[in-house]
Amino acid sequence: SQELEQSPQSLIVQEGKNLTINCTSSKTLYGLYWYKQKYGEGLIFLMMLQKGGEEKSHEKITAKLDEKKQQSSLHITASQPSHAGIYLCGAVRMEAGNMLTFGGGTRLMVKP
Amino acid sequence: DSGVTQTPKHLITATGQRVTLRCSPRSGDLSVYWYQQSLDQGLQFLIQYYNGEERAKGNILERFSAQQFPDLHSELNLSSLELGDSALYFCASSVGVEQFFGPGTRLTVL
Q1: Which residues make Cβ contacts (< 8 Å) with residue B96, sequence separation at least 6?
Q2: Is-contact A87 A10, C-beta < 8 A?
Q3: pLDDT digit string (tens) for A45-82?
Q4: Which of B8, B21, B27 is nearest to B94 (CA)?
Q5: Taking the CB of residue B51, how many other CB atoms lie within 10 A of it?
């Protein structure tokens, strides 16, 4: 199994609906990144969480880190077609030069 | 725009060939990371350089090598290419913990 498990793997929502994507780690989380990727394109940095209980928001996207559960969630409020893409969580692996290990991604489609 | 540039954007080549991918990090960033994204393996870390020296190695094949030059740009060399090497190759740069990704190079091996 993967070190970082994302759920769901894919999601189709109606425009205006809220949604949540989860990322669970099998190892201790020292830092957790969320990126968005348009199909076949580069990764766009969304936010980084470092402390347990930390919560950050950017526009309609909010991410939380639950250090005890080794889990992070990404919540989108009132989804729009522009939110469509692949959401990737990445965990910092400090034992390897701060490299990131990534989850398998969540493909989000937003129906107008 | 992350400030990280990668060239070329697309590369099509044949099996057995060798290619070089180039990455220019954000101004001032000393660390460069290379990642490979394929359909079956997802996004995987290959190698990291810090100020010209190799810092960490991930799932990088022996046929692949990288280096970081004094001006901090980096090159990823892929040799004896196989069909399975077809993927998106990203580089990322950082000065601290945050990593900013380039747009990627899409490699197609025919």
Answers
A1: none
A2: no
A3: 899 998 778 899 988 999 999 888 889 999 999 999 99
A4: B27
A5: 11
Helix (H, G, I), strand (E, B), or coil: what is residue B55? Answer: strand
Q: What is the pLDDT of residues B56-68, one digit of tens each?
A: 898 899 999 999 9
Nearest-angstrom CA–CA distance, B56 and B62: 15
A18 with A110: CB under 8 angstroms? no
Among candidate residues B93, B85, B110, the one with its CA nearest the CA of residue A100: B93
CB within 8 Å: A96 and B58: yes
**Rounded distance between C-alpha atoms, residue A98 and residue A52, angstroms:** 18
Q: Which of B106, B108, B86, B82 is nearest to B15 (CA)?
A: B82
Return the number of CB contacts < 8 Å for A and B. 65
A chain contacts of residue B23, beta-carbon cutoff 8 Å = none
